[in-house]
Amino acid sequence: MSKSLFRKKSIDGILKDQQEGIGEHGAGLRKVLGVRDLTFMGIAAVVGAGIFSTIGGAAYHGGPGISLLFIITAVTCGFSALCYAEFASRVPISGSAYTYSYVTFGELIAWTIGWALILEYAIGNIVVAISWSGYFNNLLVHIFHIHLPDWLLIDPATAASAFHEAAKALATGKITDPELLKKYQFAITAWNEAPILAGKHVFFNLPAFIIVALITWIAYIGIKESKQSANYMVIFKIAVIIFVIISGAFFVDVNNWTPFLPNRFEGVLKGVSAVFYAYIGFDAISTTAEECKNPQRDMPRAMIYSLVICTALYILIALVLTGVENYSRFKDVNDPLAFVFAKRAPWIEKIISVSAVVATTSVLLVFQLGQPRIWMSMSRDGLLPKKFQQVHPKYHTPSFATIITGILVAVPSLFLQSGVVTDLTSIGTLFAFVLVSGGVLLLPPIEKQAGKFSLPYINGRYIVPVVFALFVYFFRYRIINAATHLTTENHQEILFLLFMLIALALSIITIVRSYSLIPILGVLFCLYLMIEIPTGSWFLFFAWMALGLLVYFLYGYKNSKLKPAAGRE
Fold this sequence. Notes:
Elements (H helix, E strand, L loop, with lengths): L1 H4 L5 H15 L9 H12 L2 H14 L3 H25 L5 H9 L2 H36 L13 H17 L5 H16 L2 E2 L2 E2 L4 H16 L1 H27 L14 H6 L2 H6 L17 H30 L11 H6 L4 H35 L18 H17 L5 H20 L22 H12 L1 H9 L6 H23 L3 H15 L3 H25 L3 H6 L1
Antiparallel strand pairs: 1-2
Helix pairs in contact: 3-11, 3-14, 3-16, 5-14, 5-18, 5-22, 6-7, 6-18, 7-10, 7-16, 7-17, 7-18, 7-23, 8-9, 10-16, 10-17, 11-14, 11-16, 16-17, 18-22, 18-23, 20-21, 21-22
């Protein structure tokens, strides 16, 4: 059984299955994407909630030094992007890391990563939809002076929590802060004005549901329409961000950049999940391989271009934010760009509000494109029902999978809190990056071909051990402390020690086998970012993976197209 669990697909076999799928359903995906479209799609996915929301919390913990974290994260993603580019050039099929893992690691690992990608795309989009709702409501209130009922704008758990906190605080009679008093009274009023059904106060996030429904419709009717929508939104939001950077530069006080690392490097690392969440979308480019005119040439370029452009924008925004306002003031600030201009230039705040809505809309669109194409690939392999690979004869999109993705995102966005899902999404994405980076090492060598990307080989035999030795030196006190207090350490430090063991093993293997430097560094950097994410999210991640394995053994293992071949061996 263990052999059948890791049965692999050849690259030729994957290309053959794609053609058979087109013949069976009478329609293939429409090839309309060029390098510019793919680059814009990458920017659309990366520049969104991160730059308008989560960067605030990261700045509070890391201070001006948060710009370093963007560089570290970009380098990490850069290693992975080069590995993605190698796979995209060799395996120009929709499916992203799922398809790549099927070629290199086998079926069980491929299913596992396909299941983890649901966290990145579908579950991650719930958070984006909820963020969009907040930006949209802010836009209605401050620009159009339209006030929607509060019970249409929030999930029931958040509303109940705010009400009970407010009621308890006001009962003491000791609240004197006007802003805090206003906040508590608002929570009480919202609760009392909500309709009651079957004895329960009714709350749901209607704008989040509506935007997901609209985006799903655009994704359903065609990649050409989706491409054009994404391109227009990207041009607009990049123009706004550049404008904000230039405008903010006039308000920068360089004294706010001192100290640069107020909470040392540990404070910077607390923003890992928030900052990395901003980068999770660049691999969405790989899911559109079958709609690309020349995937072997254009996809690698687009991945690198989008990563470089987004990193430059993030670093400049981070420096402007922490230069205009002291880092300590970003605690619990969910709209940092609007926050820094609220009193200095209110008219800029209004432009930012519009841009935030556009930016998060583009993220929703790209992610709603990505998930159905991964499911389509899994269905072709027999791991999901055939319905998921159905391509619409008119629109040339994976129609059924697109509808299911829309339902999976739209319905939970009505009632769920975003909460820990950000961290959970980052773990799922980093897990994919680790497998893609490691998978490149298992690809068979080929001769370089004109027009196709090939990952440059740099012998890591000497460099990787040196990097590991430097890491041990700089983190020696953490290693000693974690090792000497192993039985009393928290789970975070146990994860750190586990990372050290894996890093040591990879260093030794690299010395023995002369592995290529870039994939090894991609694995190590992504693993390190993973262990810095709070352990509470790890427990949820393991639970999600366990559910995925259950689905695989109940359906995928029995229906895999490779099962007959495995049975004949």
